[in-house]
Write a structure and sequence with these properties.
Elements lengths: L4 H5 L6 E11 L3 H11 L3 E8 L4 E7 L8 E7 L5 H9 L2 E9 L2 H10 L10 E2 L5 E5 L9 E5 L8
Parallel strand pairs: 1-4, 5-8
Antiparallel strand pairs: 1-5, 2-3, 3-4, 6-7, 7-8
């Protein structure tokens, strides 16, 4: 039986993809984070990249070595400036956000806006891996910083 993306997405709310794209964890030191999640716990490192506009270096580790969707994203500040540095200074390292996959980030933002949720981003913007991202304030998402994450412009799927 082969995977049929169209039927997998049927019945979902408009613009959604039906899975978690990644869970973001703020770490003070990326090498220490990799020592834990990759070297000790066995998650497979997919890639490391810098996201200068966010002032972070990120590592994406696969949640499923069999190729299923989803990653653990380790976020380490490049300096004492930026959202991740501020998060760590205020709360210490730890769970930062949950990113839900979308096939159309703008459509999901519209649904959230219509539901009265407080958006931190009014329109999608570029994020790690070239994907489009937008954040919903934790006050509107049960205390969790929620990221809506979609494919890069011109890419197929998230």
């Amino acid at each position: 039986m082969s995977f049929d993306a169209a039927s997998a997405l049927s019945g979902l709310p408009a613009g959604t993809a039906g899975h978690v794209d990644h869970v973001g964890v703020a770490v003070a030191d990326l090498d220490q984070g990799l020592a834990l999640y990759r070297d000790l716990l066995g998650l497979e490192l997919e890639r490391i990249e810098e996201v200068p506009q966010e002032n972070v270096r990120v590592a994406f580790l696969k949640l499923d070595r069999a190729g299923g969707p989803g990653h653990l994203e380790l976020l380490a500040p490049l300096s004492d400036q930026g959202a991740i540095a501020a998060f760590i200074a205020k709360r210490g390292p730890g769970l930062h956000h949950v990113a839900v996959a979308a096939v159309d980030v703008a459509a999901v933002l519209d649904r959230c806006r219509e539901a009265g949720m407080q958006l931190l981003d009014q329109v999608p913007r570029p994020g790690a891996g070239g994907k489009l991202v937008a954040f919903v304030h934790p006050r509107s998402a049960g205390g969790v910083l929620l990221e809506v994450c979609g494919p890069a412009p011109g890419a197929d799927g998230c």
